[in-house]
Amino acid sequence: LLRPSVINAMFSLVTGSLSLNVGLRAVAPSRTAPSRTVAPSMNYYAVFHNFKPGKADEFWGAMGDVDFAAMAEAQHEAGIYNHYFMPSDVEGPIMCLWECKDKEMGSDDFQAFIDGPESPAADLMNKVYPINGMGVTPSSAWPTMPAAPTKSSGSFFWVKHTFNQGEAPAFWESMATIDMEAFAAANKEKGFVNHLFLPTTDPSTVFCVWESKAPMTVPEFTAFIDGPEGPSPGTFANAAYAVMEGGTVPSAAFPVSWLDETVAKIEELLPLKLDDIVAKLKEFQAAK
Hints:
By secondary structure, this protein is an alpha+beta fold. It has helices at 4-10, 56-62, 68-78, 107-115, 168-174, 180-189, 218-226, 258-269, 274-287, and strands at 44-51, 80-87, 94-100, 124-130, 155-163, 192-199, 205-212, 236-242. The protein starts with a helix and ends with a helix.
């Protein structure tokens, strides 16, 4: 088995910060998601990675000697940049979000890159999804490479949404009138923030990235996203995945407080947890 330190090293890739005040572009009512234009205003790709049988340990093991800061700088210079690396398990699947500086770089060329010798995912099975022009994405990596994100007090999840039969037209029509600020505020009041909304050029598939205020399991998050308090009940079949600890994600909407971070660092250095120390002190006082 691989050491956690080796696996965590993989997750040190420099990632982009994301404004928490981002909103959807205005969208005219339509029966389906608008198609990408010839000269898009952005060029993002979601990639759904799966491991080839028996290849997961080999992939993670190869990451131990990689300088990920240097890799990020090289990607930025080359014009194809990985914003987020979001593994759900050491056996996969993994979801990544990439951006191409060349806005006219097509999906065939990107597929050739992600499958090719210069790609960190060359030995994975890579399903590429071009992101539609109405997506809510991170700020561009150009001209300035994004800063490292702040850490969350809770959990991050990515969701692969597949439209239920017949639900897509009404969903896209509703997007023309929805009050996104009110929608975001209501979700945040419930303890959730939707960072990324990534409709793809596959008309059946949308990806999203969510953050919860408190640490949460996949079943707990699924109960929210599928339930009556979720963003679009009954519209999608939702496959939710928790991002592994150390995965690269957007900057937190619910950041860890300075006090919590300090206490956590102290606990790491102590042989006993703070609760154990308090209990020991109480035992000592009771014995006096």
